[in-house]
Design a protein that fits this description.
This protein is an alpha/beta fold. It has a single domain, classed as Rossmann fold. It is built from eight helices and nine strands. The chain has a five-stranded parallel beta sheet with strand order 3-9-8-4-5, with helices on both faces. The chain has a two-stranded antiparallel sheet with strand order 1-2. Strands 6-7 form a two-stranded antiparallel ribbon. Helix 3 packs across helix 4, helix 4 crosses helix 6 and helix 7 runs parallel beside helix 8. About 35% of the residues are buried. The model has no long low-confidence stretch (mean pLDDT about 90). Bound molecules: zinc ion (2 copies). One zinc ion binds next to helix 2.
Length: about 220
């Protein structure tokens, strides 16, 4: 509601083509969805119709990805994470909804938790907003089952440090039903350690089916 009012007072420009109206126009949204190259999110080798190759064993069974973190998607994620464009949760949610298949009715949407300091900086829990939006659109439950144990930030760390931080980062609070699929939602995948250890925490707590939906893939340089 507030977002609707704000968009009338200060209209958004499309991150891709600058057209006035929304943060991303339907044309640019469409282009992101068709420009995908299927590659494994872990080892980056080309795959056939799945984002996880057979060689990469992960605690999650399936993963869906919107696209590479460049161009329009890069700008949209940047606005959302670093420039307080709160209403972008809808655009990012819609992009994810575009790549997610039909999900069983009992699927639980679980956001990857953000550190409290980042939530304070932004003024919102960015992945919780996206997860809730997806759950609402699909008529599913959203639960904040995965929590952060330590207050470490991931930016600017190297791959090895990131992996260690992520390994210690997550715990599950709440009851897990092994019969229910849990779909973790995250914004960026870099090394894959965040979704790996968040999934592992869910499995350790009793989950048998963990799936992952990610907005953008970033190559760590
Ligand atoms: Zn556009
Ligand atoms: Zn792989």
């Amino acid at each position: 509601m507030l977002d609707d009012i704000l968009s009338i007072i200060a209209p958004h420009h499309c991150c891709g083509c600058d057209k006035i109206g929304s943060l991303i126009c339907s044309n640019c949204k469409y282009n992101i969805n068709i420009e995908q190259k299927m590659v494994c999110v872990v080892c980056h080798r080309p795959t056939a119709q799945t984002w996880l190759c057979k060689n990469c064993r992960m605690p999650f069974e399936k993963v869906w990805l919107v696209g590479e973190r460049d161009g329009t998607l890069q700008r949209l994620v940047g606005l959302y994470k670093f420039e307080r464009a709160r209403s972008a949760y809808r655009s990012l949610g819609d992009l994810l909804l575009g790549v997610l298949p039909e999900l069983p009715d009992n699927t639980v949407i679980v956001p990857i938790p953000t550190t409290p300091s980042r939530i304070r900086e932004r003024g919102y829990d960015h992945m919780l907003l996206v997860a809730k939006y997806i759950a609402r659109k699909r008529g599913l439950q959203c639960r904040q089952l995965v929590c952060r144990q330590t207050n470490t930030k991931q930016r600017q760390s190297n791959a090895k440090k990131r992996d260690l931080q992520a390994k210690q980062a997550f715990e599950v609070r709440g009851k897990i039903d092994p019969a229910v699929p849990y779909l973790l939602i995250d914004d960026i995948i870099t090394t894959g350690s965040t979704i790996k250890y968040a999934s592992a925490a869910l499995c350790k707590a009793g989950a048998k089916h963990v799936w992952v939906g990610v907005v953008a893939r970033q190559i760590l340089k």
